[in-house]
Design brief:
With about 260 residues, the protein is mainly α. It contains ten helices and no strands.
Length: about 260
């Protein structure tokens, strides 16, 4: 497949979507890592996916207006994501060192319910793949106009309401993740939350956020290029690039620190 203008018109919305989603995911992912609740994003994302699947199974019909179907699916996803996040927030102080085990259990439970709901659907495999791996190249400029304010608002609230972050964390997480799942899928949601934060650990504190953003942006761009060059699914290609970019960032930070120590 050659690089022509037609390909760039497809890639551009996908790249911009990834960049805008990173605005909210990077700081939230750093907070997840700081709190040591790595499975939280998977659990909330999986509950959002469960809500979307439940709507499709029980309510969506073939003659339903696509706009109503999309809105209903997202509403169900938001409802279950909020229920999951608020439930885990209530358990935060009570669970103690068992919190991560409970979060992991919530993820497995939601994933199992999703499989059970789709067991009788002949198209379940395709639908599950779409939700888990995403359909990044199908993102349009119209989608970005609808979804972008969610991530921009989430990032803005997190940045400017620092004193309220303890109370905002679970709410912002639950409100942004369903939109992310709807756009890029569960796997890419997890990768874009956790791996930039991991890759930025070796950087000085004042540079961690910028390093994490750079990891995310380069992983999105290189994943898109890899997908086009190899004709492979875009979401998984991006996921594979995240650990590579995180590792490259970690090595670069170590080398820069080593050079300073010698001087």
């Amino acid at each position: 497949m050659s690089f022509d203008f037609g390909i760039f018109t497809i890639l551009a919305p996908a790249f911009v979507a990834g960049a805008i989603i990173s605005l909210a995911h990077v700081p939230l992912g750093a907070e997840v890592l700081k709190r040591g609740i790595i499975f939280l994003d998977l659990a909330v994302a999986q509950f959002a996916a469960l809500g979307m699947i439940a709507f499709r199974v029980f309510f969506e019909s073939h003659d339903m207006d696509p706009r109503y179907a999309a809105a209903g699916s997202l509403a169900f996803g938001l409802s279950l994501a909020l229920a999951c996040a608020l439930g885990l927030h209530m358990l935060e102080k009570r669970a103690g060192r068992y919190q991560e085990a409970l979060i992991g259990s919530a993820f497995v439970l939601a994933a199992s319910f999703s499989i059970l709901l789709m067991a009788g659907d002949p198209h379940s495999g395709e639908q599950m793949a779409d939700i888990m791996a995403g359909q990044v190249l199908w993102i349009t400029w119209h989608d970005l106009m609808i979804y972008s304010p969610v991530f921009v608002l989430g990032a803005g609230l997190w940045r400017y309401l620092k004193k309220h972050r303890a109370h905002l964390f679970y709410i912002l997480f639950a409100l942004t993740i369903p939109f992310s799942v709807n756009l890029i899928g569960v796997y890419l949601v997890f990768a874009s939350l956790i791996l930039p934060a991991l890759g930025a650990l070796a950087w000085p504190e004042r540079r961690k956020l910028a390093a994490a953003y750079m990891i995310s942006i380069t992983a999105i761009g290189s994943g898109l290029i890899l997908s086009i060059l190899t004709d492979t699914p875009t979401g998984p290609a991006m996921v594979c690039m995240y650990p590579l970019m995180a590792l490259a960032s970690h090595i670069l930070a170590k080398q820069m620190c080593f050079g300073k120590s010698r001087n």
